[in-house]
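Example 183, ligand coenzyme A.
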Amino acid sequence: MDRSPPRCYFADMNDLSLSILPETTGDAQAIERLHERTFGPGRYVLSAYRIREHVDHLLELSFTARIGTLLVGSVRQLPILIGDTPALLLGPLTVEPPFRDRGVGRRLLERALEDARVQGHRLVLLVGDEPYYSRVGFKQVPKGRVTMPGPVDYDRVLVFELVEGAFEGVSGPIGPDWSKARA
Ligand SMILES: CC(C)(COP(=O)(O)OP(=O)(O)OC[C@H]1O[C@@H](n2cnc3c(N)ncnc32)[C@H](O)[C@@H]1OP(=O)(O)O)[C@@H](O)C(=O)NCCC(=O)NCCS
């Protein structure tokens, strides 16, 4: 009889295949519940949500992480303008707490950035923790270069150039890309 201790479920996670898939309309409820659990009702006052009021995220550039059928993480991207330069706003990036620190967030980020680049986008902006996002190459936006609607901590406004030099000379207010706004 095998008397070895039971292997922890999480120790097995690397053996389970994690799928990163484009978001579908059917994912909306599960993602909303994940955001509610992670960010709570206060999320609606955040600056990034002000922009999301006007423009939908792009399903083809938003991704879910699943283990089997279980949704364990999500990242979304939506079209914005920085001044008159088109860019993407990344977020929220969320991973279910029991599945954190196992590379799920990084896999979601890498897929979102890679597909954005392949689809011809040049810049991705987000509001988040620099120590985390700098791991994949996000950099702080120099103070005064951009403004956002509503309350925002400008130390947390970060940018990723999908094309080298794409942020050079770009500045101004950040807002929804009105050409893609909801009717
Ligand atoms: C931030 C978040 C998405 C990371 O997902 P994850 O799957 O745990 O991340 P990864 O496994 O790719 O990376 C884990 C590493 O990042 C570090 N890390 C996680 N959150 C961090 C943060 N806010 N700041 C700095 N480092 C962070 C971990 O300590 C870990 O470090 P290690 O590799 O040295 O052990 C997840 O913690 C989360 O959902 N948090 C709550 C929601 C949130 O804050 N989202 C971001 C703002 S939109």
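Summary: The chain has one domain: 10-180.
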